Amino acid sequence: xxxxxxxxxxxxxxxxxxxxxxxxxxxxxxxxxxxxxxxxxxxxxxxxxxxxxxxxxxxxxxxxxxxxxxxxxxxxxxxxxxxxxxxxxxxxxxxxxxxxxxxxxxxxxxxxxxxxxxxxxxxxxxxxxxxxxxxxxxxxxxxxxxxxxxxxxxxxxxxxxxxxxxxxxxxxxxxxxxxxxxxxxxxxxxxxxxxxxxxxxxxxxxxxxxxxxxxxxxxxxxxxxxxxxxxxxxxxxxxxxxxxxxxxxxxxxxxxxxxxxxxxxxxxxxxxxxxxxxxxxxxxxxxxxxxxxxxxxxxxxxxxxxxxxxxxxxxxxxxxxxxxxxxxxxxxxxxxxxxxxxxxxxxxxxxxxxxxx
Length: 357
What we know:
This protein is mainly beta and 357 residues long. 10% of the residues lie in helices and 46% in strands. The chain has a ten-stranded antiparallel sheet with strand order 3-4-5-6-7-8-9-10-11-12, with no helix packed on it. Strands 13-14-17-18-19-20-21 form a seven-stranded antiparallel sheet. A four-stranded antiparallel sheet has the order 22-23-24-25.
């Protein structure tokens, strides 16, 4: 284990490796009320006890559990951990927390750090929601959220969980609205949400695709329109993109709005209606460059046009403006991190597919 000291002062910071088995007692001189003990075995942290003003706030044992306490010393959280890993939840756990401002306790189950089941119970004993990562026998993925009095508050349908474990399924974006956003989620999710007022009437309804609001929404009783997460007027949302001027879109100052309109306009139409230039081609691939307005940070928009070998359908994909060869751009779309040396790309780094569909 290595201990690093920061903000200790000029020439006073240090980095020290601790091997074997030992007990490390630490204290923050800048914040004297923060202290703790770390136990090391064979160079690995196996236990930690953190304290605040002399009272334990966290107790963690490798591969067994992690407990958290409030400032009064009361246990507020307990989670089982994956054997051999210090910070990976595995098994059951619970935590006292708030849901939309109401006190309660959330019960969760993890498998190798991934949330699989969760139930939130209000302090009055009523259940707010029951969540399962897996679909039911009918192939539906739906979660109903209820108020403390048992009335229906929200209904969520679709992909409700991403890749990052979380102890909360929902959080309150504003006092008047419930939006599912999966706190701390780094994954991409798609779902539909409906929110009801206390009278049981629907006052918010809409869809998320790739983590963005899309289409027509009923938002707090009013209609709102979205293109790729960007709010637009009803006229723009309903207008035929074939009538749009490509150069007018490129001159839009708001980058998010410009990107949303380009997506609806389509890159195929952009190529046809601008002075595009093919800067590289090979086989069925073409790398196309379109000049952007001079005031924009990116001087060019670069697009890769490819053809599916199975269906013959052509696709246009946007790639970074630094791309200069088709295969380099194609590899970028696969997520390959191309290594460069003397402006060369090493072909051994390429991702090769036996069959493309």
